[in-house]
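Checklist before submission:
- one chain only
- standard amino acids only
- sequence pasted in full

Submission:
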Amino acid sequence: KLTSLALQPVITPEVVQGRVHLKCTYSHPPSWPLIRYMVLWSRLAIPGKKEQIQLDTTLQSFSYIEMNGVNLRLGDTVFCTVTAFMRDAPEEQSLPEESKGFYAGIKFLPESLEIAEDGKEHVLTILSTVPIACPGHDSSCKITLQLTTEDLGKNSQFLGPPSVALSACQVDLPCSGGSCAAAVLTVMAVTDFAQGGKRRSRITAQPIAPRDSLWRDYTPKDVKVTVRDLPTGNCYSFTDPHIITFDGWRYDNYKIGTFLLCQSTSRPFEVHVRQWDCGGHRSATACNCGVAAR
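Returned file contents:
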């Protein structure tokens, strides 16, 4: 006789006696006072296939499993499936109920980005879903992550500029009270002044010298970043000199001297041009003879 009891199992992380555990908590149905639970722990071995790692039978409305780095490691997605049955009538069971998958490890939010070469900064949040066990309750306990970017599918003979820039190369996730804080950084697309379609990159994170053995062989999932081209503005100064600005305004400058041709209002970029007399006595004509760019 199978009945639905709405046990609603939920997985949460916890540090127990200095070691990281996952705790499966579920509701106690008031209509079944004398009850026993069977809790099956499993992890996602490959997409679509679960692997059983522990089976508990308990009177409590919770069950623990240790993240020991052997049968349960960082990077695993973990489930608990709970079935209730009467102590004096074990054949009378509830329908098994499965928790949502709990990803144990470092998460990036969002998990992927599509950005444009528009100079805008995009926020990327890094957090740990599990605490780090600190020996001796060290107040400076933290996880330090080294961040790197890698362009995907780029021709090795011409590397060019990177596709994305990060606001930091290292971030700390400080841990206290059994939980770890999140770190926030910004990602910006690098303009390459080329119409090459979409460029793809990834951001990877690697824990630096962790004291906890659980973290030593762990590499978090990377973040895929797609960079979309935007049309590049152009301005010109040519012949004696005719000038066309970025917005298409046209005028002439026949004067001799050094002039500020272009200056950005948001970053340290400017172009100077030097003009000399190239018309002689016949006409008052100036020509470009030098350029300096910062």
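Reviewer check: The mean pLDDT is 86.
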